[in-house]
């Protein structure tokens, strides 16, 4: 086969290759550059142009090779390995970083809380919760995130509802958890040894309500013999002494059986601050709308469901209406617990207007089925306490003086004026939700007996429009105007002016001073609470618990309805109304596990009731 003549590119390559074999190694870089330059020209020139030839001058003959250089022998061992230090900190993964930041904020919040820096603690806790809610991670999707989230929310909830609220004059007083909620949904074994004595007592003891003894009643008689059950009974019987006379009088005035007092023991163990999971409050456990139906007012300042006497009148009227509707006390009590609508549906479905028939046919809510047996069991024990080894000393009723301040006044000022502690005033006025009375001329404030005259005389020294912000201070040994001014964050001059004193006047121990304090910002700004929905909670019950409207609660959490699920986290501004600026977006997520109840005194409680 005939070889074709070389092209321009091939000829140039052949010529350069020949030079390479003619010992051009010392000039290799020059030849390579020439080759690249020529190749570039070939790629750019048209095919019709004259060929380009490179002319390179002849190279001088190569010098004689040098003698070989002797090299030192290489070491046998490898050189030591060098370790390099990474100067930048390691970057954690997204979840690890989230957990780290949340734990830092939460730890800072706990430190501030223990140091008494409540505002700083609130901010740290809010930030910790916001980190979790706004991270984009689902806390239920990772065990570590889930555990951390539940821990943070539960702890913050407990701190806010118990410590924070108790510390601010305009924050709501903490409620008492309803310990008997758990009892109303349980069943207990029957002890046959209790039956004979219970039947004998039902026949022989004085009573004005029917006392049926069956397995359902005996099971709760058995429970109330356990340490936990005995504590509930003893707490109720002890506190009953404080209210028995008043309740007996009201029931008599309304023409109702005296034994209905044990309904209150089952509901709340006579604890005015008892709060059920469904949002029912007070000794008689009214939900908000039922209380309003019977004249119990609920405002931001007061909740008359927690006023023992007013709530007793309302409960008596409600029970009387229910008895007129059914003509049967067991059905009336069942309707008091779950609402007359549920009882009426059960009667229509079965054709029986009898509580025990409705019980057997399982047409009532579970807690309502247990509600009536609990009341009967408590009645039998209370009337035969010695047989059940129950020995308690009932608390004495507390006599009081009643005054009408005429306008809002801080309870701390009242306490300092009549020389009692604030807790005494709160116990005498459980309907007050705040550490201040409402700006209502008709509001009646209860004081320890014998102190009304002193209050009226001394409060006149302070302008009425300052009753919410000004305070009184009893001078202790060694105190000066300057040291007292620092305590209340006012000037010594303002204290001197308010008390008609010289600026450098010496103070006598025991002397009372008027403190023209300014209402602190912490008592007027809104509080953010992150609340995790628990079993038995309802949307309206949560709104009522925090004294906010259902509309606001939906708006803050971007909800379209009043439906909430267990484990959902709700953002609540406890002083009501929208915040000054738009709240940070929070996502409500369902959790797999229910939350723990806030810690607190659970000796007495209320049956979980949804009084429809």
Q: What features would you describe in this structure?
A:
This protein is mainly alpha-helical and 612 residues long. It has 4 domains: 1-57, no CATH class; 95-167; 181-383, Lysozyme; 400-522, Membrane-bound Lytic Murein Transglycosylase D, Chain A, CATH 3.10.350.10. It is 45% helix and 5% strand. It has helices spanning 8-21, 28-44, 94-114, 118-133, 143-167, 181-184, 193-204, 215-223, 227-253, 261-268, 288-293, 308-326, 329-338, 340-350, 355-360, 366-383, 411-418, 422-428, 452-459, 481-488, 492-498, 539-545, 550-557, and strands at 176-177, 274-275, 400-403, 445-448, 471-474, 512-515, 528-532, 569-573. A two-stranded parallel sheet has the order 1-2.
CATH class of the largest domain: Mainly Alpha
Strand count, sense and closure of the main sheet? 2 strands, parallel
Bin the strand percentage: under 5%
Strand order of the largest sheet: 1-2
Which class of secondary structure composition applies to the elements? mainly alpha
User: In DSSP terms, counting alpha (H) and pi (I) runs of 4 or more, how many helices?
Assistant: 23
CATH architecture of the largest domain: Orthogonal Bundle
- By oligomeric state, this entry counts as single chain
Shape: globular
| Extended strand count | 8
End-to-end separation: 109 Å
Look up the CATH topology of the largest domain: Lysozyme
Radius of gyration: 42 Å
Our count of domains comes out at 4
Rounded average pLDDT: 78
Helix content: 40-55%
Q: What can be said about this structure in brief?
A:
The protein is mostly helical and 612 residues long. Helices cover 45% and strands 5% of the residues.
